[in-house]
Amino acid sequence: MSQHIEKLAILFADICGSTALYDNLGDQLARRLIAQCIATMADEISTYQGKLVKTIGDEVMCTFTGAAAAMHAACAMQRAVESTKYEGGHSMHIRVGFNYGEVIREAGDVFGDTVNVAARVAAITRAGQIMTTQAAVDALPPDMREKTRQIMRAEFKGKQEHFDISIVIWEMDDMLSTRIGTPAFRKSPDNIDEMSLRYREQVLKVNKEQRSVVLGRGDTCDLVVQNGFASRQHIRIELRFGKFVAADQSTNGTYIRFSDGNVVRLAREEIILRGSGSISLGQSYSENPGELVEFSVNSVRAQRQATE
């Protein structure tokens, strides 16, 4: 069986919340929604001359000849999925991760370290985001490179080296002015998310009333964490354009574990927090830190409906 090595961009796109779809909507409707979402993504893959290698449940894997084509396709996929009208008025969301480098092509599939890293980048990406590696960013033309922001240094299981991970600002594309001007894309004031931070007996909210908080061991912090590894003003969390952004400003870095078990380390970098998880100030999870700050992002409207 013939095989050869070539340089390709490897892209994984995953439908978020598919398990909940099956639980809440039933098998048949959930399967139709997922199939429609995959078809929407496949259309954009072919538009940018990509090749759909395989579909794995609610995830697609595809290849592109270059990093630029992969990034164009990733942005187009996000826009298409967000704007498509799905059956029953349900909304769908995807997360996309891609990498660029040498792969082994064999029997219509691709293998190798570049593929494995691409899959792991997609795994740490949150709904509505596009993440990529430094190798892919380096292969982009200057104008496209400007639409990426390095936000974390990730540790992947089984890998000794760290990987610099960048987020693609896909909403800042040429459709931004149209999106902002369209009522469908404006977040209703009744549906603004709120973050809860819990440490020991303390609970702190980040919302439209209190948009920024600082965590650390200094007495002036909004949430004082009794941890010798923490800096005086260790990390700032702020509500920025509807996203909860955590910005590390410490000496020892910040470790964040999401609900799916993935851990990222921030070193003077930023990351968008979604869902729930925990934050360790200056101490890795392998050291079994005791002083953790739990975080959870919830819809204010959903909370209000639950109490009515």
Task: Please characterize this protein's 3D structure.
Helix content is 26%, strand content 38%. The protein has 308 residues and is α+β, with helices and mostly antiparallel strands. It has 2 domains: 3-185, Nucleotide cyclase, GGDEF domain (Alpha-Beta Plaits), CATH 3.30.70.1230; 189-307, Tumour Suppressor Smad4, CATH 2.60.200.20. Helix 1 runs antiparallel to helix 2. The termini are far apart.
CATH homologous superfamily classification of the largest domain = Nucleotide cyclase, GGDEF domain
Total helical elements:
8
Structural class: alpha+beta
Mean pLDDT across the residues is 86
Task: Please report the first level of CATH classification, the CATH class of the largest domain.
Answer: Alpha Beta
Q: How many β-strand runs?
A: 19
User: What sequence of helices (H) and strands (E) makes up the elements?
Assistant: EHHEEHEEHEHHEEHEEEEEEEEEEEH
Largest sheet: 14 strands, mixed
- Rg, Å, rounded: 20 Å
Report the CATH architecture of the largest domain.
2-Layer Sandwich
Beta-strand content bin? 35-45%
Number of domains: 2
Q: Any idea of the CATH topology of the largest domain?
A: Alpha-Beta Plaits
Helix content: 25-40%
For the terminal residues, how far apart are their CA atoms?
A: 64 Å
What is the molecular shape? Answer: globular
Low-confidence stretches: 172-191, 302-308
Task: Provide the fold topology.
Blueprint: E1 3-15, H1 18-25, H2 27-47, E2 51-56, E3 59-64, H3 67-83, E4 94-106, E5 109-111, H4 113-124, E6 130-133, H5 134-138, H6 142-145, E7 148-155, E8 162-168, H7 176-181, E9 193-199, E10 202-206, E11 212-216, E12 223-224, E13 235-240, E14 243-248, E15 254-258, E16 263-266, E17 270-273, E18 276-281, E19 292-299, H8 300-307
Parallel strand pairs: 4-6, 11-12
Antiparallel strand pairs: 1-3, 1-4, 2-3, 4-5, 6-8, 7-8, 7-16, 9-10, 9-19, 11-13, 13-14, 14-17, 15-16, 15-18, 18-19
